[in-house]
Amino acid sequence: xxxxxxxxxxxxxxxxxxxxxxxxxxxxxxxxxxxxxxxxxxxxxxxxxxxxxxxxxxxxxxxxxxxxxxxxxxxxxxxxxxxxxxxxxxxxxxxxxxxxxxxxxxxxxxxxxxxxxxxxxxxxxxxxxxxxxxxxxxxxxxxxxxxxxxxxxxxxxxxxxxxxxxxxxxxxxxxxxxxxxxxxxxxxxxxxxxxxxxxxxxxxxxxxxxxxxxxxxxxxxxxxxxxxxxxxxxxxxxxxxxxxxxxxxxxxxxxxxxxxxxxxxxxxxxxxxxxxxxxxxxxxxxxxxxxxxxxxxxxxxxxx
Length: 304
Fold this sequence. Notes:
- The chain is α/β, with parallel strands linked by helices.
- The protein has 10 helices and 10 strands.
- The strands form 3 sheets. It has a 6-stranded mixed β-sheet, sandwiched between helices. A two-stranded antiparallel sheet has the order 1-2. Strands 8-9 form a two-stranded antiparallel sheet.
- The radius of gyration is 20 Å and the shape is globular.
């Protein structure tokens, strides 16, 4: 679990706030919260959610209550809001770099959480709707997109309480998110992309005709990029039971070439599909890469 101070980065948020967001077209000529004196104008049905204190009584769907004897409300989305969902990898590999099993500071998981909350905070302040999907061990956790600071706090609470464990099922999580969004939205996918997933690119390309714009944020730990260890070292597979003992000095050159090839392949594959891509390494300021990603239309950016 991450503390608030581990995730909130006011400086990063401020630097991202000036970026002009490039996203899919919306049904209205502008985005953001536009209050209307007539309830329901510009609203469309999104999904049913179980009633809880804070929901308006008038939003209860009495037909559903008659069939199920349970209270559900109709959740609607303002068509004039830009909708953004963050799909965040919370698999075990994201724990790399953590101070301990119970302290995620310094890990890819913390870095990813900081990126997600910083972008989400900027979008909410502009009046846009944000949502979240966590994918790792167990069933994915989904928060439908909505606007306002209460929504940001809900997103923040889920991210801070997320436990990085198990294997990542990124393709299925992205497909499920796209199915829920249906159309006209942006999807930030934050992952180390280490799991082999042959159907992933096809799922991303399938979103584009529906007006869903995927954007890839590739997170890696600086140790994974440089292999700085010295002397005989035991390397352990975080997501499995295998381990390997070797001298990093003997393989560093080949390893670095392999990593560069992996990053280049990710960047070129995304560019070929017209999908914006940003590489963010722990220990380095991600603001420039994220700003370029936010502004990107898919024809530029990537790793060099």
